[in-house]
Amino acid sequence: MSKTGQQQQQYLNQVSINVPPQLPSKCFDDDGRLKRTGSVWTASAHIITAVIGSGVLSLAWATAQLGWIAGPTVMFLFSFVTYYTSTLLAACYRSGDPDSGKRNYTYMDAVRSNLGGFQVKLCGAIQYLNLFGVAIGYTIASSISMMAIDRSNCFHSKGHESPCRVSSNPYMIAFGVVEIVFSQIPDFDQISWLSIVAAVMSFTYSTIGLGLGIAKVAENGKIKGSLTGISIGTVTETQKIWRSFQALGAIAFAYSYSLILIEIQDTIKSPPSEYKTMKKATLLSVVVTTAFYMSCGCFGYAAFGDSSPGNLLTGFGFYNPYWLLDIANAAIVIHLIGAYQVYCQPLFAFVEKTAREWFPHSEFITKEIAIPIPGLKSLKLNLFRLVWRTVFVIITTIISMLMPFFNDVVGILGAFGFWPLTVYFPVEMYIKQKRIPKWSPRWLSLQILSGACLMISIAAAAGSFAGVVSDLKVYRPFKTT
């Protein structure tokens, strides 16, 4: 290269080194990604879609195990803990400055930035295994609701003396087929509309469940239940203990959404800071869900007492007005279609990101094929996404068909995910980020909270596993009920 050429190259190098980083523009955020458009309302819709899920239907049963004193008290305590630890976790979305610090796009990214090391792998394993479990739980719950519609219509047309036997397998397969289609939506940002529809559906069936509970109380002419819950004699002392523990897991599952909180927060626009918006969305969502939970759990228990069903809507002893039950169960199915996507999108994104990092030159993994759709935008089809997400849905559907124990699965998921994801990691990251001194009053308070929640999770897991063992003694796979 000539001397003049060398001088030009040195000049260009100096220019490229001194170019300031790109500032946020109308189209892009400070990290160079497309402008985020989420708000308090879209974040709340995502949270409500995730929180007011199938878990609300088991709360009457959970209240029946604990009684009028412990049941509502435990629900309130879980709501407070969930809100408090969610605000701690939301503060970890950005490392350093809450307005301009480095973004953490996923829960694992937040753990990596604040704790690092082995804890990142542990967090990932727990989070993604829990998401996998939620997909199974939602497949089971949707089939139960579809079976309820079938049985309700059967009883209406053939009379209550008819056996009306129904198999859950065709309904699980149908739900799986629908999820295969919706799973092709590329990422979280593009499912806001699905979350809003699902949130509306969750309010629909929760309100119907509440209304039917109130109607049942009026029909009975009294409030059923007791201060201490289901009585010894109806169940044995051992069953009472295990069921009480399982009820803790069911309530924990009903409030669980921390495992996708960071992913939801990453959809929010700024200013104001994502933390401020997420804190408002969390407060709004937890207040709304707690009001619904208290109402459904308490009125369900008041209506049925010790015989409160594991699934409030499908356990009603009467099938009139059958059309109202059909609407409620249809709303559950529509809600669960959206909730399945809200929970699975982070898992889908993790696997696809990892695959691109491992095989960056593979066209099967990276190539997007544009398929024109008349009157609409072209559909971008990725073959790896199509194959992997389809296989994932098929696996969760098959496992659901083999183990359709709604209450036990809900309890296990709640117990397994509550302490590490809702309490432990948010507390530890917050301590590290805020540099809270060891053995200080605040540090001790946070550790006591974490320790107490660990004990609750262990008890809930023990009760739920005991329930699964009990069910397996009498269960026959693929049996028509």
UniProtKB/TrEMBL annotation:
Amino acid transporter transmembrane domain location: 36-469
Subcellular location: Cell membrane
Domain of life: Eukaryota
GO cellular component terms attached to this protein's record: membrane; plasma membrane
PANTHER family: OS05G0424000 PROTEIN-RELATED (PTHR48017)
Record-stated family: Belongs to the amino acid/polyamine transporter 2 family. Amino acid/auxin permease (AAAP) (TC 2.A.18.2) subfamily.
Protein's name according to its UniProt entry: Amino acid transporter transmembrane domain-containing protein
Organism name: Erythranthe guttata (Yellow monkey flower)
